[in-house]
Amino acid sequence: MRIALATAIAAWEQDADLPPLLEAFARAGIGAEALAWDDPTVSWSRFDAVLLRSTWDYAVRRDAFLDWCGRVEKATRLVNPLETVRWNSDKRYLADLAARGVAIVPTVFIESDRDLPRIAEQSGEFVLKPSVGAGSRHAARFDPTQAAEADRHARRLLAEGYCVLLQPYLEAVDEHGESALVHIGGRYTHAIRKGPLLPRGGTASDLLFAAEDIRPRIATDAEHSAAERVLAALPHPALYARVDLLPGKTGPLLLELELVEPSLFFEGSEDAADALVDALVESLQG
Fold first, then answer.
1. What is the mean pLDDT of the chain?
2. 15 falls within a domain
3. With b meaning 16 or more CB within 10 Å and e meaning fewer, what string describes 183-199?
4. Largest interatomic CA distance in the chain
5. Is 44 a domain residue?
6. CATH number for the domain including 31?
7. pLDDT tens digits for range 49-62
């Protein structure tokens, strides 16, 4: 069995998950190789499966990435599959999950200039970010006095072809942080705490991903229940998932569901990398 771990040329050697994952494949006696999705010299058909990992630059060329996923899926097994990637790579999936009863961070989807007046209606701090994005790229935090600046940021994103998400900034995140619950093969493995990423008065980042303060976290019963509701609402299959939650006044709220290229923070678990290998092998043999 041969497995390709898809990264990106721009993310080469920046993915802390790759070394422990390669070691886990080696322990299982399976040949695995990290290769860039945007390397045109790679023949993906020679692998039994292509496991999406750090394809973090897909957000700036999503169409090309989805085309590549389609070609790979015709040649071999793509994990997670194309239908999952297509749905999850645009954060408008939050509306789908909300319609299925999932409690999400309240979100307004700004699709055109006609929706921009919603920005001026904000009475507290808020966040603007593109519907297609990774690593907090182009996400920015504003307060009501910055409505004009926020309007310019939203217009820039609209001009670049993005839908813009408008969300309240939940102040509890400053103390509690963000909880990310990792599930592999449908089973919970571990959780981490991500410190607040958007400082007051900060500017939107154009980097591949923002620096993060990552620490292990013991998920609460409420967070486990919230994550399970999210996963139960999925319209498409997913071998791995990371459920990112923020503290709301009545319980955890879904910020993002990561099914494409999430960091799984293997350093926070003794066996999560092995669990991913086992789940992949089981899915290929099933």
1. 93
2. yes
3. bbbeebbbbbbbebbbe
4. 58
5. yes
6. 3.40.50.20
7. 999 999 999 999 99
